[in-house]
Amino acid sequence: MAAALAARAAGVRDVLLLERDQHLGGILNQCIHPGFGLHHFKEELTGPQYADRFVRQVREDHGIEVSLRSFAVKLTKDRELSYLRPGALEQVKAGAVILATGCRERTREMIPIPGSRPAGVYPAGLAQKMVNMEGWIPGKEAVIVGSGDIGLIMARRMALEGVKVKGVVEIQAASRGLVRNVVQCLEDFSIPLYLRHRISAIHGRDRVERVSVVRVDDGLKDVPGSGFEMDCDTVLVSVGLIPENELLEMAGADIDRKTNTPVAEKVNLTSVPGVFACGNACRVYDLVDWVTRDSSLAGRMAAEFLGAVPERPGELA
Ligand SMILES: Cc1cc2nc3c(=O)[nH]c(=O)nc-3n(C[C@H](O)[C@H](O)[C@H](O)COP(=O)(O)OP(=O)(O)OC[C@H]3O[C@@H](n4cnc5c(N)ncnc54)[C@H](O)[C@@H]3O)c2cc1C
User: Fold this and answer.
1) Final residue of a domain: which of 221, 237, 253?
2) Phi/psi-derived region of residue 57, left when phi > 0, alpha when psi is between -120 and 50, beta in every other case
């Protein structure tokens, strides 16, 4: 939305905004906690409040056509884009394309955690969507793997919903999340943080019953005799995000295989002329304020590529 608005402000006449979901706003819609907008709006908002400020501006701008439930499925280097909307496969030839497709979550299989494969193991962001948007609580006793911001926020969220959070298990020596989240989400709720520990096995047949935890040394090797078990019926896995760049790859752009981000010298640029990537698709951001800042820049970069000229006040479009 920030990119679309900035492109319009820089003189682009027609902007088509495609969103596969039924709402605009992306991940913000499920982030009902405060902590958004301190830099951009100089006030503390929840995710949906932050998104709403942009949705209103987008709706008021008649040069932005919004198409919801519209899944972009193909992109060529010549900026031909195909998307599926209910009942139709549409094709557009764009002057410039900005990909703001966000991230997907790393899963249990990617760490990997040995043991059986019972129900009750969820990516933390998916659990957040279930709790905050569907009103569905995944279990009664939870262990969280990974102490990035999503893991920390979900520890507090589950505790607030009456789930007993047995602990957050982090293999590194320090949390990867914001200090304020360690304090407000764990310390304030007396949730233990097991640093330099890992889950060595998940147990349970149909449903998770317990996890084995072991301490690791500086080389991340298990410390003999340090293992213990925690009973739980739910494991939330919060072990990082992977930028969604399959469309970019399809268009033939150079992708850094390690980070799944576009290879380019400047933020928002890709190796395909006229195709830009912004927000979490370009790099994983901690704060939405910086996503807005850099995505606005992406809108201006696209306008410059198109040779657009901003309207002067009083001049007809
Ligand atoms: C759990 C969590 C907590 C956070 N807490 C904070 C916080 O407290 N404060 C803060 O400032 N920031 C926080 N952040 C970070 C911030 O919210 C995000 O970095 C930012 O909102 C990402 O925006 P984005 O537009 O890049 O991606 P997203 O919000 O992921 O949006 C991507 C959009 O693209 C759509 N899409 C993807 N592929 C396609 C396709 N092929 N066709 C059509 N549509 C597609 C998706 O449906 C989605 O709507 C948090 C993030 C998470 C996940």
Assistant:
1) 237
2) alpha
